[in-house]
Amino acid sequence: MIIPLRTDSPLRSTPWMNWAIIAANVIVYVIERRNPALELDWALSPRNPQLTDYLTYMWLHANIGHLVMNMLFLYIFGNNVNDRMGHLGYLGFYLAGGVFAGVGHALTQAAPVVGASGAVAAVTGAYLVLFPRSSITIIYLLFFIGTIEIPSMWFIAFFFAKDVVLNFSAEPTGTAHMAHVFGTVFGFGVCFALLSVQLLPRDQFDVVALVQRWNKRRQYRDMVSRGYDPFGYIPPAGARAVQQEP
Question: Whole-prediction pTM value?
Answer without folding.
Answer: 0.87
